[in-house]
Amino acid sequence: MVDKEAARREYPDIRALEHSTLKVPYEILNKKFRTAQKAIDREVTNVLGGSNEILHCSSDPRNQSIDSVANFLGGVVQKLTALKRKADDCYNQEQGCLKNCKLRINHLQDRMDQLRKELPDDDFGVTVWQRKRCSRFIVDHLLRQGYYKAAIDLIEEADIKGLCNVEIFTVARKIEASLQIKNVSLCLNWCIDNRSRLKKIKSSLEFNLRMQEFIELIREGERLDAVKYARRHFSNIDAGSRDLMQRAMGLLAFQIDTKCQPYQDMYNPHRWKTLLQQFREDIFSLYQLKERSMFSVVLQVGLASLKTPDCYDECKKNLQCPICSSNFNEIARSLPFSHCSHSRLVCKISGEEMNGNNPPMMLPNGMVYGEKALLKLADLNHGIVTCPRTNASYPFSDLKRVFLL
Hints:
The chain has helices at 4-17, 19-59, 66-116, 124-145, 148-158, 166-180, 185-193, 195-200, 205-219, 223-233, 239-249, 263-267, 271-286, 294-306, 326-331, 371-380, and strands at 360-362, 368-370, 384-386, 393-395, 400-401.
């Protein structure tokens, strides 16, 4: 059994940060299973059709010759061979998904084993696991930002090939590239393959893609083809899309340079960016991926926990504070300040905390620094301490210790 205190500390962490680690391969397995089921059902139907032909042949005296029966049997054998080939292919694909699920489960189980053994954070195994988690988060962020080569290189270097969702983002990359050149064929094929799942989340992506194709036909002056296209694809639209479809039919009466609304907006090329964004949202919803990368979320939480008003005061910045550095300072600007229930005094010179081992010392000008840093300054200047803020110099003997109540 895992220690209760450790479980309370780590389980929320696993649930919050590792949801997609297990959910994504499960959704991929679920999709492959349903696809395999449909494919095998089709092949089984073909085999049954061939068997029925043999039964019909046996009852028809005209088709009871040896050659006729041999032809029918040969057809059934071919269909059975196709069924076996399809079943083997589907089995291999599902086995690959199952291995990936098992790999990720074992990866998370390693962390729970470390908790069970109560290993310290600086243990080698714990460090390796945390480093792999950090690499996974960075890879996910790189894939979302489009840096695929950098992500692949990091996967190989960190040896986390089976722990990243590269397959999803590879498919998304191809579809996004096609949408950027105003081609909807790949995205439409993806919608058809995932039609039942998209229907569950009430997605209108396929309708909007069809609508964009309709608009592009009108833009090119192919109005008759646009009407034929509308009859073929918009005959069974739901009630929620009927108003939009009726409005789109009005485009047939307007030129592309019209100023009349809403037809001007429907001709606007910005609709392609809207389709691209909707595709990203839908593919993330299907695989239950968050809108933001986990790397971005964890980084912002960490920065917000360290951010204080002093981080933006040039006179109070701490040398050892990450937020006070130029890079993180700008990133954390829009984040909320941390809530500190206990204050700490930090030496401006060394960045170390002032406590019993490093008591605060006050100069005659009222400035307070840590004793350790002041001793180093005094040793370098023959017992004279120079204030870094005012440049005033005083003998170390003039300094007074500060006591806090």
